[in-house]
């Protein structure tokens, strides 16, 4: 497992990324840009938390595949359902 | 508690956690619900004797009988009886001593039983649910159908189903952990028995599919209890329900059918004396079906307003899913051709199941084609088709009952009676369901039909009673065997191949004398005692490190009363919730912004229900606390095949599996938001967030994730005060988070924006509320852990529980990472 220093650095990074999302919408970015940027920041945050705080990078790869499958299922449901009413 | 009372004692069945006992409980309970569901079917079949109904049921009673028949059979009979077989047999087939989490196994049974009792009680609380087993919106809410008044009975039926799904989720986590991590040495996945293979794929499908249903039911329950508007809007609600329900509903077909298929594979092998032809390809075909099952759900929505492109795509995927089934059917037929068939009762039922399934499968292809579906949808063609599929599964499950009866009871049954049972069953089945194809123009769910179809309906009604009679013969056969049947040998079937037949009938409590091993290529029982180990016993690959961590319990426990207690608590709590609606409706009417056009919520408040809620919470609090404190040693396998999930402990793996299911629950709830917003028009969404509150809570929750990780570091360093401080800080931060949330909600309500104000506010309150509920549950666990640290210096020697708690807490944080932009920024 990582040491306290690494955990602290990740925490600082997470706070910065959270602030970044806020900044996208508080300053004059185009709506599409703000959404795109926020999605990138959110995904980065999720990967950091899952990878380092939940130690997913140290677990057997199959665990990551299982979680990725669950996320894929959500995307499948949401994208297909969303497309069905376009 | 560790001593298990004898099987003749009632106490035994309340405290047991042994997989075989739980299996018997599942099977007997499921058979009870089969009788209840069957009685409902006989009632409405009599009503259907003549067009317009015979008059034995009022229209709303007919609707209740039809709805509860479907719900009971699909949920409370089909999956649980398969779960009973799996409980009893899967650990035996893979060489395990028990399931990975025996107490959770008992808990999932009690949730199942109490959900069924709650469902039965719903008949006596005004009226039970009458909107069809698919619970289509808006029929599932009272808004547009006053007959569906939010009586306690209607609510109780929905809540019972919710509790049932919780039982399924717990069971899925348990079986996945067991099958992936407790296989005997040398038992690779490819070599697992076919029933275990079918069950493994079933529970994988259950994990993802039932999570979507759980989300849908949570939203529906909240609509009914708290007056939110998910399924009450005039735009988008019915499509939202259909997507969520059928994302679950189509995999459910295979969830129901796969265990039956597994029984067919086992019995065909045993009674033809031949290994399944193309065994490896059959496994691949099953895996393909399990994957494809999540890609076909919109063929249930061809008559909705979804676009033609997606209908066409789903028509193609639907036709595609029939191909792997063709392979399986041909494999079974060819196994018969290559083998020498012995027409025993289990084989006859399995063969019957195959014939019926072929008919059911072929008639289903019609419904997969968009154009034909326009004609057939909503008619008795659909009813006939899915009964040929689902009840062919029942046919195979009856085969399983006969096949494993000698193993479970230690008694043989009368073959003559068994064959009579099959003959009556097969005739009754076809008399009941085949005429429905001929009367296909009859509309579903009503008792009015054309005169020309009357003869077919009358034949079907007679067939229903013949089919019912066949089950009486089955019960008589088993009762006679139980009372006076000859003793069954270890293996009454000459060519059975799986491990359960290598031990006595019935098997002993601990299953095996030695450790089962397939390392030599055949089943052996290895003596792992120190004297024997001195000579060098073969060890499973890559498991030495785990063996040192997970020391084998010298004495495994098989009894705990707390799962039963938690089940009682949940039952009382859910029963209380069922009568909450009138109180919420009264509160809503008294606010500055009461809901407009509230219809179907006129039931009067009854103080009994809030009392039950409080009582249920108290019981749960006490029993969960005792459950957490109880020392319980589950059997652990030091040497086992664990691919692809080696290198991780059972509990941690179980938590990850649970989180995978929770991803779907939250994903579906968040998906509901995205879907409804897309349906409305993304920029037309009218919601005014308090952005700063969201940002502050983001910082708070991120910081709490950091304190949890510090707690883990402190536990690793055996620093008690540091561990206490970090856990305490986590609780305080969580409370601060809830405080900000309370401020936010208060502000919103002060502006008149209650959860019934609009669909935007319904979704905001429910989604963030679901997250807040996770935070509250996390706080309760954290407080319990603090109590354990203070009282017994817990987690300093073994820090893994802190890590397990962290997995959950970080997940809650991750969900907020998504909720913040979705609800406060976009």
Automatic annotation (TrEMBL), chain A:
Transmembrane segments: 7-25, 31-53, 65-85
One Gene Ontology cellular component: plasma membrane
InterPro entries, alphabetized: Cyt_c_oxidase_su4_prok
Location(s), subcellular: Cell membrane
Keywords: Cell membrane, Membrane, Transmembrane, Transmembrane helix
Membrane topology of the entry: Multi-pass membrane protein
Top-rank taxon, per record: Archaea
Protein name per its UniProtKB record: Cytochrome C oxidase subunit IV
TrEMBL record, chain B:
Segments crossing the lipid bilayer: 21-46, 66-90, 111-136, 156-176, 197-220, 240-261, 281-300, 312-335, 347-372, 384-405, 417-435, 455-478, 561-587, 607-627, 653-676, 696-715, 722-743, 763-787, 807-825
An annotated GO cellular component: membrane
UniProt KW Electron transport keyword: yes
Topology term for the membrane: Multi-pass membrane protein
Domain Cytochrome oxidase subunit I profile: from-to ranges: 7-519
GO MF term (any one): cytochrome-c oxidase activity
Domain Heme-copper oxidase subunit III family profile, first and last residues per copy: 550-826
Entries under InterPro entries matching the protein: Cyt_c_oxase-like_su1_dom, Cyt_c_oxase-like_su1_sf, Cyt_C_Oxase_1, Cyt_c_Oxase_su1_BS, Cyt_c_oxidase-like_su3, Cyt_c_oxidase_su3-like_sf, Cyt_c_oxidase_su3_a-hlx
Gene Ontology biological process terms in this record: aerobic respiration; electron transport coupled proton transport; respiratory electron transport chain
SUPFAM superfamilies: Cytochrome c oxidase subunit I-like, Cytochrome c oxidase subunit III-like
Keyword annotations: Electron transport, Heme, Iron, Membrane, Metal-binding, Respiratory chain, Transmembrane, Transmembrane helix, Transport
Subcellular compartments: Membrane
UniProt main location, coarse: membrane
Family designation: Belongs to the heme-copper respiratory oxidase family.
Name of the protein: Cytochrome C oxidase subunit I
Organism: Natrialba aegyptia DSM 13077
């Amino acid at each position: 497992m990582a040491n306290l220093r690494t955990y602290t650095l990740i925490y600082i990074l997470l706070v910065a990324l959270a602030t970044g999302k806020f900044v996208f919408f508080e300053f004059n970015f185009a709506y599409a840009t703000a959404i795109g940027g926020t999605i990138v920041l959110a995904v980065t945050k999720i990967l950091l938390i899952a990878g380092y705080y939940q130690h997913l990078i140290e677990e057997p790869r199959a665990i990551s595949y299982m979680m990725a499958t669950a996320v894929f299922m959500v995307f499948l449901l949401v994208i297909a359902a969303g497309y069905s009413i376009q | 508690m560790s001593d298990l009372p004898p099987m003749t004692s009632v106490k035994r069945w309340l405290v047991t956690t042994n997989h075989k006992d739980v299996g018997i409980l599942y099977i007997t309970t499921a058979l009870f619900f089969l009788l209840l569901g069957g009685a409902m079917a006989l009632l409405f079949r009599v009503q259907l004797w003549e067009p317009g109904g015979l008059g034995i049921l009022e229209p709303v009673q007919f609707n209740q009988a039809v709805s509860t028949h479907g719900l009971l059979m699909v949920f409370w009979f089909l999956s649980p009886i398969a779960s009973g077989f799996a409980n009893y047999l899967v650990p035996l087939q893979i060489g395990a001593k028990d399931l990975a989490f025996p107490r959770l196994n008992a808990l999932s049974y009690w949730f199942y039983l109490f959900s069924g009792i709650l469902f039965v009680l719903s008949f006596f609380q005004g009226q039970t649910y009458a909107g069809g087993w698919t619970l289509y919106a808006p029929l599932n809410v009272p808004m547009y159908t006053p007959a569906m008044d939010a009586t306690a009975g209607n609510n109780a039926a929905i809540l019972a189903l919710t509790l049932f799904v919780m039982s399924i989720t717990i069971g899925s986590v348990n079986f996945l952990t067991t099958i992936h991590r407790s296989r005997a040495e040398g038992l690779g996945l490819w070599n697992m028995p076919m029933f275990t293979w079918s069950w493994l794929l079933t529970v994988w499908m259950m994990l993802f599919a039932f999570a979507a249903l759980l989300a849908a039911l949570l939203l529906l329950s909240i609509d009914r209890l708290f007056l939110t508007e998910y399924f009450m809007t005039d735009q988008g609600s019915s499509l939202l329900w259909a997507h969520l329900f059928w994302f679950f509903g189509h995999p459910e077909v295979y969830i129901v059918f796969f265990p039956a298929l597994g029984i067919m594979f086992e019995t065909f092998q045993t009674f033809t004396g031949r290994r399944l032809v193309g065994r490896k390809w059959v496994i691949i075909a099953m895996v393909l079906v399990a994957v494809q099952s999540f890609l076909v759900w919109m063929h249930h929505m061809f008559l909705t307003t979804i676009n033609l492109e997606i209908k066409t795509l789903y028509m193609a995927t639907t036709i595609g899913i029939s191909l792997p089934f063709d392979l399986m059917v041909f494999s079974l037929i060819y196994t018969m051709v290559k083998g020498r068939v012995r027409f025993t009762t289990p084989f006859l039922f399995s063969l019957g199941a195959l014939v019926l399934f072929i008919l059911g499968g072929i008639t289903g292809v019609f419904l997969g084609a968009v154009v034909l579906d326009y004609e057939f949808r909503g008619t008795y063609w659909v009813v006939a088709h899915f009964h040929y599929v689902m009840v062919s599964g029942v046919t195979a499950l009856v085969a399983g009952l006969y096949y494993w009866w000698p193993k479970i009871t230690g008694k043989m049954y009368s073959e003559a009676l068994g064959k009579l049972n099959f003959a009556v069953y097969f005739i009754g089945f076809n008399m009941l369901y085949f005429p429905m194809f001929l009367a296909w123009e009859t509309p579903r769910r009503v008792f009015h039909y054309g005169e020309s179809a009357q003869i077919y309906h009358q034949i079907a009604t007679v067939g229903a009673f013949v089919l019912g009679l066949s089950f009486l013969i089955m019960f008589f056969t088993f009762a006679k065997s139980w009372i006076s049947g000859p003793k069954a040998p270890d293996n009454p079937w000459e060519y059975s191949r799986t491990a359960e037949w290598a031990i006595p009938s019935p098997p002993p409590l601990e299953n095996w004398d030695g450790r089962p091993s397939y390392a030599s290529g055949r089943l052996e029982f290895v003596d792992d005692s120190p004297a024997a180990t001195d000579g060098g016993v073969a060890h499973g690959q890559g498991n030495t490190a785990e063996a040192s961590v997970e020391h084998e319990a010298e004495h495994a426990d098989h009894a705990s009363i707390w799962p039963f207690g938690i089940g009682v608590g949940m039952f009382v709590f859910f029963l209380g919730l069922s009568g909450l609606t009138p109180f919420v409706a009264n509160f809503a009417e008294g606010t500055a912004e009461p809901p407009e056009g509230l219809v179907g919520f006129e039931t009067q408040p009854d103080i009994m229900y809030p009392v039950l809620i409080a009582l249920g919470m108290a019981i749960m609090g006490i029993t969960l606390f005792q459950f957490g404190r109880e020392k319980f040693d589950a059997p652990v396998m030091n040497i086992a095949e664990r691919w692809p999930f080696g290198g991780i402990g059972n509990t941690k793996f179980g938590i990850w599996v649970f989180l995978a299911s929770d991803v779907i629950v939250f994903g579906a709830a968040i998906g509901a938001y995205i879907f409804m917003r897309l349906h409305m028009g993304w920029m037309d969404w009218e919601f005014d967030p308090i952005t700063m509150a969201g940002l502050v809570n983001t910082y708070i929750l991120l910081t709490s994730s950091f304190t949890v990780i510090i707690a883990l570091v402190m536990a690793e360093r055996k620093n008690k005060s540091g561990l206490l401080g970090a856990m305490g800080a986590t609780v305080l931060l969580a409370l601060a988070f809830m405080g900000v949330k309370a401020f936010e909600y208060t502000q919103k309500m002060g502006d008149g924006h209650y959860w019934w104000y609009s669909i935007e506010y319904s979704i905001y309150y429910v989604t963030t509320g679901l997250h807040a509920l996770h935070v509250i549950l996390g706080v309760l666990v954290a407080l319990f852990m603090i109590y354990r640290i203070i009282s017994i210096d817990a987690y300093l020697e073994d820090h893994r529980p802190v890590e397990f708690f962290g997995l959950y807490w970080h997940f809650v944080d991750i969900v907020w990472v998504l909720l913040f932009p979705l609800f406060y920024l976009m």
